[in-house]
Amino acid sequence: MPQRTPRIDVHTHMLERTASEAGAPHSVVTGFGARSLPPPVPGSAQARADRAGYDVELHIEMLDQLALDAEVLSSLTVMQGTGWASPEQAHDLNRRVNDAIATWASEHPTRIVGSFTLPLPSRERSIAELERCAGELEMRVVQLPVASTARI
Length: 152
Fold this sequence. Notes:
The structure is a single chain. By secondary structure, the chain is of the alpha/beta class. It has a single domain, classed as TIM Barrel (Alpha-Beta Barrel). It is built from six helices and four strands; from the N terminus they run βαααβααβαβ. It has a four-stranded parallel sheet. Helix 6 links the parallel strand 3 and strand 4. The radius of gyration is 16 Å and the shape is globular. The model has no long low-confidence stretch (mean pLDDT 92).
């Protein structure tokens, strides 16, 4: 009997609380700070997805419900991108997100492949974070933004 091809979602997201709170005022979702983040309708699929963004176990439950074998997990950069931040703040926020994704991947190594982001406002910090994520955190997927004002 032929083996089934694994079902892998390559476009999934997570949120890290500090990074998402810092990034929300700079997001298109809030009109770049013109309004607060709209809450999801209680009990809706969006409310569950929002909770899963912060909760690895709920994330795994959703994978199971969708009959997915694994996922490539990335930062929800529309909410926690750092193009607006100073080099120091971008470094801190990217590091927080990368650490959270690495933790999720280490807790569920057969289900989650973690990706990492870079603090693009600083060439030196981007290189250091690339080396840390690929070395210490053993991550193999880099997530780059579609656009950046950084000149590295």
